[in-house]
Write a structure and sequence with these properties.
Elements (H helix, E strand, L loop, with lengths): L4 H11 L4 H17 L10 H10 L1 H18 L7 E5 L5 H9 L5 E6 L2 H12 L4 H4 L2 E4 L11 E7 L7 H14 E10 L2 H16 L3 E4 L8 H4 L6 E6 L2 H7 L5 E12 L8 E3 L4 E3 L2 E7 L5 E7 L3 H9 L5 E2 L4
Parallel strand pairs: 1-2, 1-4, 2-3, 4-5
Antiparallel strand pairs: 5-8, 6-8, 7-8, 9-11, 9-13, 10-11, 11-12
Helix pairs in contact: 1-3, 2-3, 4-5, 8-9
């Protein structure tokens, strides 16, 4: 996966405003901050760091958002998403992903507390050929102190909850769900802390009547959490040469790990189990680690003798749904 060409050009125009020496330094500072796990202060605080974020983090968070939003299309192909509310929007990442995923999108509202991200986001979205993106409404509001919102088809909270105290996160979730008329997406980094935020969000959403559409194939207790593990997935994205240089990587791609939830107003039948690890490819068989509708973790061995199932297992990837009837 990669950024659409028009978005890539808009992002590059912003990056080019900062001289390379400052950009390299800022990229290292952002990386160090994220690796420290410090959430007491923001990782991005100045122009150079915002440009570096666009270069090294924006493509990854876009890819994760796009992957998660595709779950709505996969599970509910007839879903019509015409309005989006993005809480803690940053530079508008979720909006860009949603505009590519949902062609019927007509209206978007983005809430962001940082005036610099607001200005940058308005600049990026204003260049978009998508009318829903270029005409998006940006509002300066701090989620921690409460916020106002009107009903939208889809509400997204992306890479935000893990930075909030648990009481504040609960307040945001309750308010956000009240504004979601069809779906709500919550997305966090695929690490223990990110999963902890997702796990807490899942429990609350089930408690207040939401239906979990993905990734969970059940509404029971999370077997991953019970096992002391964390449920997360991965999305591969292409790196530009600049991206590789700033991150000091030799590969032409990177894998963004994330944890997520998609909640729905409507009750929709489970798609089957969920593949929660990379499939194990062996001689003559494939082994799948599944989270099942019975709220349990199971290993499923698919042998070459089961021709159709084996064919499907060969195509299966970490994070895919797996129909037990295959």
């Amino acid at each position: 996966m990669r950024l659409p060409q028009d978005l890539l050009e808009s992002v590059q125009a912003e990056i080019d405003k900062v001289e390379r020496r400052r950009l390299v330094q800022a990229a290292a500072q952002i990386s160090e901050h994220y690796q420290s796990g410090d959430i007491s202060s923001p990782a991005v605080t100045n122009e150079a760091q915002r440009a570096a974020y666009l270069a090294v983090r924006f493509p990854a968070t876009y890819a994760a958002n796009r992957r998660v939003l595709s779950e709505i299309n996969d599970r509910v192909p007839e879903a019509h998403i015409s309005s989006l509310l993005d809480l803690g929007a940053g530079p508008g990442t979720a909006l860009f992903a949603a505009s590519e995923q949902f062609p019927a999108l007509q209206q978007a509202t983005l809430l962001e507390s940082d005036q610099h991200w607001l200005a940058l986001g308005k600049n990026l979205t204003g260049r978009s050929p998508h009318s829903a993106v270029s005409g998006a409404q940006w509002l300066r509001q701090d989620l921690r102190s409460g916020f106002a919102c009107t009903p939208h088809d889809l509400v997204v909270i992306s890479y935000v909850l893990g930075e909030l105290a648990s009481s504040a996160a609960e307040g945001v979730l309750r308010k956000a769900w009240g504004c979601a008329t069809k779906f709500m997406v919550v997305l966090e980094p695929g690490a223990r802390r990110g999963f902890a935020a997702i796990h807490a969000a899942r429990s609350l959403l089930i408690q207040i009547g939401a239906n979990i559409l993905a990734p969970c194939p059940h509404h029971g207790s999370c077997p991953m959490a019970a096992a002391g593990d964390w449920c997360h997935f991965s999305q591969r994205l292409e790196r530009t040469s600049q991206h590789r240089q700033l991150k000091g990587g030799a590969l032409g791609y990177e894998d963004e790990k994330f944890s997520y939830l998609v909640a729905s107003r409507d009750s929709i039948a489970a798609a089957g189990s969920r593949i929660v690890r990379h499939p194990g490819i062996h001689s003559g068989y494939i082994q799948l680690d599944l989270c099942t509708p019975a709220a349990s973790l199971e290993k499923r061995t698919v042998t070459r003798s089961h021709k159709e199932a084996y064919k499907q297992a060969r195509k299966a990837e970490w994070g895919d749904a797996w129909k037990d009837s295959v």
